[in-house]
Design brief:
The structure is a single chain. By secondary structure, this protein is of the alpha/beta class. It folds into 2 domains: about 80 residues, 434 Repressor (Amino-terminal Domain), CATH 1.10.260; about 190 residues, Endonuclease, Chain A (2-Layer Sandwich), CATH 3.30.870. A 7-stranded mixed beta sheet has the order 1-7-6-5-2-3-4. A hairpin with a 3-residue loop joins strand 5 and strand 6.
Length: about 280
């Protein structure tokens, strides 16, 4: 968890404690507040110490229990401020995967130059429906989230319309193991590789592949997107991070450009894809 994020969470906890200690009806102890809310004492402590992230409903209940319902909007604003950077999957997937896909569609539609590095799977904007379905199904199983896979697949496929609008340029780099990872059935992966072959040479997409034999100046790390050199989106197992501070964006740009130096393009990229295809279907 980032230092900035943790500091913001601790600051919110301090504000919650302040509301408890300055309640209009008199200072509330943590035990008394927990009793009023029907929560364990440990939850009060964790929220005030910044060891747990409050939900909007937690904040509303806290403000009401402290006799300060007017403080809710301030608390919610604080929460929104740092959640705009760190978006936990637990919260994002409450309503399923479709809203997450819609958010990415909007972010890409609002950008003119998009750069991506991916070391785990084919990026969404280049996925076939079957490949997307396999990836999203496994994600839903992992996060135990609502099963709206088909709606999420339709949303992800809609994103691909952006490839053909001519209004934006995609600069995508994939690590070769992505072409061979069986995150789906072999037949689905084979069709996905056929799709990649058709992308190479498009005027709106520059697709590079970093072969396993290439020297790497930096480790592959996790995948990420950079939108118009102003915002970075990356993800880990528990959350997505949407970063827009200049230092973070500059770091990811340097990383992307360093990885680009190891990539091959055009016919050389096609050869790497074809090798992966032959490994799946040697006949």
């Amino acid at each position: 968890m980032s230092t900035d994020y943790q500091q913001a969470r601790e600051a919110l906890g301090q504000r919650l404690r302040e509301l408890r200690l300055t309640a209009p009806e008199g200072r509330l102890t943590g035990t008394a507040l927990a009793r009023t809310l029907g929560w364990p004492n440990s939850r009060i402590s964790k929220l005030e110490l910044g060891k747990q992230t409050a939900t909007p409903d937690d904040l509303r209940q806290w403000a009401n229990a402290c006799g300060r319902p007017d403080a809710y909007e301030e608390l919610r604003s604080r929460l929104a401020g740092f959640e705009s950077h760190i978006r936990s999957w637990r919260r994002q997937l409450v309503a399923g995967h479709r809203p997450v896909q819609d958010a990415h569609n909007a972010a890409q539609a609002g950008s003119a130059v998009l750069r991506a590095w991916e070391s785990s799977w084919i990026v969404g904007v280049l996925q076939t429906p079957d490949y997307a379905r396999a990836v999203l199904t496994r994600s839903a199983e992992l996060h135990r989230s609502p099963r709206d896979v088909e709606a999420a697949v339709r949303s992800r496929m809609k994103r691909q319309e952006l490839l053909y609008s001519g209004d934006r340029r995609y600069h995508i780099i994939l690590w070769e193991p992505v072409l061979r990872s069986l995150v789906c059935s072999p037949s689905t992966l084979l069709a996905q590789l056929d799709r990649l072959s058709g992308v190479i040479g498009m005027d709106t997409v520059e697709l590079g592949i970093v072969p396993l034999t290439s020297s790497l100046e930096v480790p592959p790390g996790t995948g990420f997107w950079i939108y118009d050199d102003r915002q970075v989106v990356t993800e880990v197992w528990h959350a997505e991070m949407w970063l827009d501070d200049a230092q973070s964006v500059a770091l990811y740009l340097r990383t992307w450009k360093t990885l680009q130096e190891s990539a091959v393009y055009g016919a050389d990229a096609q050869n790497v894809v074809n090798a992966a295809r032959r490994a799946l279907n040697p006949r």
